[in-house]
Structure formats: structure tokens, C-alpha cells
Amino acid sequence: MSVDMSSQASDSNEEDFGANSEEEDDEDDGAEEEDQTDYYEGVAGDVEQQSADSFDPEEYQFICLSYKDSQHVLTEEVNTVAAALKVSPSVAKLILVHFHWQVSQILDRYKSNSSLLLSEALVQLSSTCRSVTAPQALQCGVCLQVVWRDSLLALPCQHSFCKACWEQHCTVLVKDGVGVGISCMAQDCSLRMPEDFVLPLLPGEELKDKYRRYLFRDYVESHFQLQLCPGADCPMVIKVQEPRARRVQCSRCNEVFCFKCRQMYHAPTDCATIRKWLTKCADDSETANYISAHTKDCPKCNICIEKNGGCNHMQCSKCKHDFCWMCLGDWKTHGSEYYECSRYKENPDIVNQSQQAQAREALKKYLFYFERWENHNKSLQLEAQTYQRIQEKIQERVMNNLGTWIDWQYLHNAAKLLAKCRYTLQYTYPYAYYMESGPRKKLFEYQQAQLEAEIENLSWKVERADSYERGVVGGEGELSASDRGDLENQMHIAEQRRRTLLKDFHDT
């Protein structure tokens, strides 16, 4: 659609692991504003072909577990290891944490060399933490006080200290948020303290409950198949069969994140690369602020214009000139130039130039990719407003008996699919920035350009449909059957471009 141009002059989870955390919140949160990340739901079936190319590379099986359910999963594995290794459950937990809950690996290694396995896990075969056999009175190694033998305690390493020092040691560490990581007080001794040794030393139920929460956090975070939901105050746990950098969504708080790194989902860019990119963007915050100012001059009449829609196909409100927002090129010939518009042209002779020249070239390259990354982020925000308008218009028409929700579902699906595709496109730019030059990068840039072209076409059609429904184009009314068919066909093309790119370049 033609876009009008106007003239310009952490422990967040801990409170949920109490007695009531076993029950999930089933209340309907329909009154909450729909998040941009909901676009993954409910649109795939409308654009898939019933053929081999309908496979979605982002398809990923996972389940959401409540606190009670995840405790049950952990307990089953603890009992299996404890029985096989003939150790207490508390020691079995320490072993499982060290080996990331790889039960089969633990059992195999125990059969081949049990002593090595126990030493690597920083535990010993005997889990009984007993008073030291010694004379009636001994000196505590920490406070240097002479105390009765009954007041001295030791782990299997036989480093003995008075009960008061053990209590102080455990109390301080638990208050600092330490769970599994509490170890012997002796210098150069890293033997881990099992929970059945620590719990009796903690004063008060409140501190004991906090310690249990920290243990649960450590157990889940060390488990190769589990991830805590990063949503604020959410106790849910995501369980997968095979841990991968894939999109998961919490069933309780609807938080969407990457299972592998628990950050915002970032396909096709891998976890390590997106961390580098976000760190770089934060370090260059002033540059980011400069680019974020989304006003440019019309390349024909030079009037200052502002982008108020997601589509990069711009039309100046004064001279009606059509151009590309990113490169300011004429839109009439731009359809064949997406490959050039989205591809950074490397200087092949830069390695032979001065350090200052190389530094300028590096900045130029970063600005090229950052501007496009930021532009798609802005477009997502603007298109979210379009989506909201479409939702409101559909609701109004249904309430006025002008069709059913199903009659207007195609507009809803088109807006959601547009956001879904643009979200993927945004994350192709960090991927391309760090990608080494070569044939594979050329293929990636080609597919990126193809996706970008189809997204802009879809954005244009969605905004055109939105204008029709708001009476901007030709009065009140709906799209013609041919326009609707054109929109739905464009949805299919854009989604297939997205899937093709992810199929070839998504981190596996």
C-alpha cells in the first residue's frame, strides 16, 4: 500500500516455587494486548502447500511443565542414578548436575570407572556426613576455637569444622543465591556439599525454602533437556527431546524465546553470533541513536519525510515519487535490484590500505547492516499498529453482523504472517554481517533479497487492504475477490521464501 508521507520541520522466578506453585494459572488473559510474537500461531495452515516444500524448518517439539511436573521428571532420574550407583539421592543429584543429567552416559561411565566418575563429579562414594572420630576436644580449622568432638562435622574429605562455622558458611552462600555450588570450607578442597548436609545447618524455614528454590534452578539449568521460562515471575519449565536453538513458547505467560540461549528468538542467526551482534549494537549506542531517527529527504523534491508504515515502498505525499526507503532508488526499477539493495559491496582492496581506511570501511559495513536491522525492527512496530487496526475493524464488522470472524480471517492471517516473515528477515542481517565472503554468502544474500522482495510486496498489499477496510482508498467496502486472492497468493509466496532460507541456513 502507498504509505502517506508527512512534511516535517533473574531471581524473578523464586516467589513461584512455594506451596501454590503446583497449580497453573488457568485464568483467561484475553484482555491483555496481543504480543508481536503471537504471529507464529495459527497461520501456517493457511499458507502451506500440501507437498514436500510445506515442511517448516522451525518445527520443534516441546512441552511446558509446571513446577510439580518438572520436579517429578527430575526425581525419576535421580532415583534411577541413585539406585544404579548405590548412592543417596542428594549425592546422585550432584552427579547428575555435573554431567548435565545425561543418565545413560553416567551409567556407562560408572561401569567403566566408578572412582573416576565420582571424583569428576566432586563427590565420594560415602554420602554419610558424620562427626569426626577424634579426641574429646579439637580446634576448629576456621574459628580456631577448641570445641567438643560432638560439635565438629566433616564431609567425606574429613576436613572437620565446628557446626557453628558450617552454619555460617552455608547461610552466607545461600543468601548470596548459591545452590548446588556450596562446597567444603577447607582451602583447595572443592568437594560439593549434598543438600541433606546443608539443609539441617540452615536456620529458619524461609532460608531453607530459598535454598530449595536455588537447587531447583540449578537442577533445571544444568539439565540438557530443560529450560526455565525467562518470563517475569513464571515458574514453568520447557522440556525438549533434543536441545537445539529453536523457538519455544511458554503456555502460561506466552513468553517466546530460543530454547538454547533463553534469549529472544533469532533464526537464522546462531546464539553466539546474536550475542556478539547485540553487544556491538549496545557498544555503539550513539550510532544506533543517530540511525534510529527515521526521517529522510525525498530523492526527487527533497522534502523531509517520515516513515509511518512498515513497507519500504514509499510514495512522497508532495510529488508522488515512488522510491525505496533504504537505498532511495526509484521503485519502478527496484524490483530487479533487491539483491543489490540488501547486499553490502565489500572493497576487495581494503586489506592493502591504511588502518584508518580499514577502520572507516569496518564502520561503513556495520552501519549498512545495522540500518537495515533497525529498519525492519521499526517496520515490525509500525505493522503491529496495522495489525491492531485490522483486529479492531474485524471486531467491529462482526459485531455489526457484517460477516463472521471466518469471513475476515484472511486479513488477520496476512498481518500475522507479514510480521512472522519480517521478524525472520530482521535476523538475517546479523547473520550476513558476520558471514565470510564466498559462494555460500552469495547464495544467502540472494535468498535474503528474494525474501525481502516478497515481504515488501506483502506489506504493500496488507496496508492496501487495511486502507480499504478503513475507507481510505475507495470508501467503505472490502477487497474484491481478485484482490483477496492476490493477497493470499502473496502470503504463500512470502512464507515459502522464508522457509527456503531457513531450510538452507538455519543453525542445525
From TrEMBL:
One of its GO terms (biological process) is protein ubiquitination. It holds the Pfam family Ariadne. The keyword Zinc-finger applies. Residues 1-45 are annotated as: Disordered. Pathway: Protein modification; protein ubiquitination. Keywords: Cytoplasm, Metal-binding, Nucleus, Phosphoprotein, Repeat, Transferase, Ubl conjugation, Ubl conjugation pathway, Zinc, Zinc-finger. Its EC number is 2.3.2.31. GO terms for molecular function: ubiquitin protein ligase activity; zinc ion binding. It is found in: Cytoplasm; Nucleus. GO terms for cellular component: cytoplasm; nucleus. Its main location: cytoplasm. Residues 136-345, 301-341 form the RING-type domain. It is an enzyme of class 2 (transferase). It catalyses: [E2 ubiquitin-conjugating enzyme]-S-ubiquitinyl-L-cysteine + [acceptor protein]-L-lysine = [E2 ubiquitin-conjugating enzyme]-L-cysteine + [acceptor protein]-N(6)-ubiquitinyl-L-lysine. Residues 12-38 have a biased composition (Acidic residues). Residues 1-11 have a biased composition (Polar residues). InterPro entries: Ariadne (IPR045840), BRcat_RBR_TRIAD1 (IPR047555), E3_UB_ligase_RBR (IPR031127), IBR_dom (IPR002867), Rcat_RBR_TRIAD1 (IPR047556), TRIAD_supradom (IPR044066), Znf_RING (IPR001841), Znf_RING/FYVE/PHD (IPR013083). Belongs to the RBR family. Ariadne subfamily. This is E3 ubiquitin-protein ligase ARIH2. It comes from Nothobranchius furzeri (Turquoise killifish).
